[in-house]
Amino acid sequence: MYRKKETEFQYAPGIESILEDVTGGGTIARADVKSVVDELPPLVVVGKDANGLYHVVKTAKMQAAAGATATDYPVLKGHLFVVGDVVTPSGLAKVAATITAIVKTDATKDIITVDATLTAAAKDSILVLANAAAAAGSAAYKYTPEAITMNKVDTTVANQQSGLLANGTVIESVMPYPIDEAIKAKLNIRFV
Question: 1-5, 30-34, 88-92, 165-169: lowest mean pLDDT where?
Fold first, then answer.
């Protein structure tokens, strides 16, 4: 007698509708996030590099405002930034600077210190991963937002595959990392 066990597969509950996905999914680079998380949750914004590998578009939400001459930026816990990443306020209109330290001792926030002021950043605004240090108005995304992951990705082993949502509807409130209007404008996805 042969018994076959089948399990039901379901995409993350934050996906309301799938109009188009990336055929065959995509390979998610683990090198950028393996030192921070062992498992990347679904509903993470990713962008593709020149070799076709998808990378997380890292973001962090400002916990409090930072002044025009600040180099310390308080952000909410739960981001993927590490020392050496380059950050800029989302929208890319301001300076991009390299992270020199991240203080994680506070229970409610982390303090990201950069090597040059980013200019003022408002409370609840988003910091995003930038390509390189740049003057105001010259910042660029390191990975342009293109899709959203549809399932978990194990970052403890080699680069893993993930389904990628290219067009559909997503519940923004259940996404694990913050996004703003500038990132949404790059995606062909409706957020509810």
Answer: 1-5
Domain ranges (residues) in the chain: 15-56+143-191, 59-129
d(CA 179, CA 136): 21
Asked whether the predicted pLDDT for residue 12 surpasses 80, the reply is no
* Domain 15-56+143-191 sits in CATH 2.60.120.330: no
136 contacts: CB under 8 Å, gap ≥ 6: 93, 94, 95, 119
For residue 192 the two structure tokens come to 């509810």
Cα–Cα distance list, 160 to 53, 80, 99, 163 (Å): 10, 18, 27, 10
Percent of the chain with pLDDT over 70: 94
